[in-house]
Amino acid sequence: MKLQRMNRRALALGALAVSGALALTACGSDDTGNSDGGSSSAGSTAAASDIKCDDASGQLQASGSSAQKNAIDAWVKQFAAACKGVQINYNPTGSGAGITAFTQGQTAFAGSDSALKPEEVAASKKVCSSGQGIDLPMVGGPIAVGFNVPGVDSLVLDAPTLSQIFDSKITNWDDKAIATLNPDAELPDLKIQPFHRSDESGTTDNFTKYLKAAAPKDWSYEPGKSWEAKGGQSASGSSGLAQQVTQTSGAISYFELSYAKDGIKTVDIKTEAAEPVKASVENATAAIGAAKVVGTGKDMALELDYTPTADGAYPITLVTYEIVCDKGNKAETLPATKSFLNYIASEDGQGLLADAGYAPMPAEIITKVRETISGLS
């Protein structure tokens, strides 16, 4: 199977890279990722083999998705070592803010966990002279549901129960609905503390799309980057949510798997499959493989299936897009933009993802992405 071969290749290449090569140079952000240390020379050589600096130089400003920050960190570390004349500044402000900055001409590209809306495409035409913004799927992965319940190491939830938890209709951890799904767990009499994003977020968009698709009777809100449900508490960025789960007894929240560290436990999701599905790179890859390309022209927006029935397909997945002008990119940033995007779409660039907790794009998708990048002007 192509996806399995892609995933095995990603794991093998990722093993050559430094585990935790995730410190982003020149990124003034408080949305912290992993920082486990340096890299071996063998890893740097392997990861840099697909880097072609060409005429790339100067500073490259980008912003957006915090979901992909840990992946960007790993990529920038390798790219900066190979192309010393380029400084890449990626600010994980959230997908909504990233798209706004891009359409206002403040950045060379944006990261977004949701594809451009028609009005955003229209706005992009003002900065992409003779062209428009397009979606290039680059990073995949599961949205993990992290929890902090003393005495509970394993937890199974389904879409209706998650919907009621995040809509403040189920408020205690020993609720009957949770107990029914977890007959062997000793659930405490403890208040549930749900946390959601305070900023506009593609992660929120994808999470609420899942709730709406899988539990339409229990989730009455329209999906979107902004949180609509009442109640709960909020925090900024994926790292902010992960921090709240770590330090708050009774907490539950959603964030990318790469943020589920420092002992954070994640929920197994009950689907129509025989067994509940764990949040893992492999299971997210299985789900992304069923996505359909719905973008037109050079745009590669994908339609994800939030209600998969196959065994081992994790239903709460997202794809992060790099958003760039197909034509009309600024002359001073185009060489660096193409050089960096070419690298992260390469086998070596995609090969770093599994080690960083992300799923590489399926071969048939990433091949089209590479072709599109080569034609950027």
Automatic annotation (TrEMBL):
<keyword id="KW-0813">Transport</keyword>
<comment type="similarity">
    <text>Belongs to the PstS family.</text>
</comment>
<dbReference type="InterPro" id="IPR005673">
    <property type="entry name" value="ABC_phos-bd_PstS"/>
</dbReference>
<keyword id="KW-0592">Phosphate transport</keyword>
<feature type="signal peptide">
    <location>
        <begin position="1"/>
        <end position="23"/>
    </location>
</feature>
<feature type="compositionally biased region" description="Low complexity">
    <location>
        <begin position="229"/>
        <end position="241"/>
    </location>
</feature>
<keyword id="KW-0732">Signal</keyword>
<protein>
    <recommendedName>
        <fullName>Phosphate-binding protein</fullName>
    </recommendedName>
</protein>
<dbReference type="Pfam" id="PF12849">
    <property type="entry name" value="PBP_like_2"/>
</dbReference>
<dbReference type="InterPro" id="IPR050962">
    <property type="entry name" value="Phosphate-bind_PstS"/>
</dbReference>
<dbReference type="InterPro" id="IPR024370">
    <property type="entry name" value="PBP_domain"/>
</dbReference>
<feature type="region of interest" description="Disordered">
    <location>
        <begin position="222"/>
        <end position="241"/>
    </location>
</feature>
<feature type="domain" description="PBP">
    <location>
        <begin position="56"/>
        <end position="347"/>
    </location>
</feature>
